[in-house]
Amino acid sequence: MIGLFNVIWFIFVGCWSALCYLLLSGLFAITIVGLPIAKSLLQFAKLTAFPYGKEIIRETELKGAENVSGARKIGGLIVNVIWFPIGLFLTCGYIFAALLCFITIIGIPVGVVFIRMGSFCLTPIGAKVVTKKQAYASAVANELERRGR
């Protein structure tokens, strides 16, 4: 069922949306300062192309907080603060689109995807798009590691 939803999404929304974010990522990649944003926009393009069955997880949750350097955490925080006005604008747009989708019963799955996209857009640096299985496996591994200490 997830595959069917992804195909329908890709035909009507995903191909155009992913293409736009890929182009935007290329523009940010031109500058050295924009490289972290370009990398996050590539992750976002992956989410917009095929959103069903995907989860957004922070890099510290995926790798473990002690496996992500402090400089990377601080740099990500600074870039997220710089990105915040753009992210707030995009998030408001996605929330509005989600509310329009929630009006109809058939649009609820699409509305959930728009909410997920809005949450990614707010602070994209340090976020990764993974499958639900990968997110679950990382959560279990982090829990086992925490209990083993």
Low-confidence stretches: none
Structural class: mainly alpha
The averaged pLDDT comes out at: 87
Rough outline: globular
C-alpha Rg (nearest Å): 16 Å
**Percentage of residues in helical conformation:** over 70%
Q: What can be said about the biggest beta sheet?
A: 2 strands, antiparallel
Individual helix count: 6
Q: Tell me the span between the first and last alpha carbons.
A: 40 Å
The number of E-state strands comes to 2
Tell me the number of structural domains: 1
Give me the side-by-side strand order of the main sheet.
1-2
Strand percent estimate: 5-15%
Secondary-structure element pattern, one letter each: HHEHHHEH
Description:
This protein is mainly α and 149 residues long. It has one domain (2-148). The protein is built from six helices and two strands; from the N terminus they run ααβαααβα. It has helices at residues 2-29, 35-49, 59-63, 70-102, 108-122, 132-148; strands at 54-58, 127-131. Helix 1 runs antiparallel to helix 2 and helix 4 runs antiparallel to helix 5. The longest helix has 33 residues, at 70-102. The chain is globular. The termini are far apart. The model has no long low-confidence stretch (mean pLDDT 87).
For this entry, give a set of tags:
single chain, mainly alpha, 6 helices, 149 residues, globular
Short description:
The chain is mostly helical. Helix content is 76%, strand content 7%.
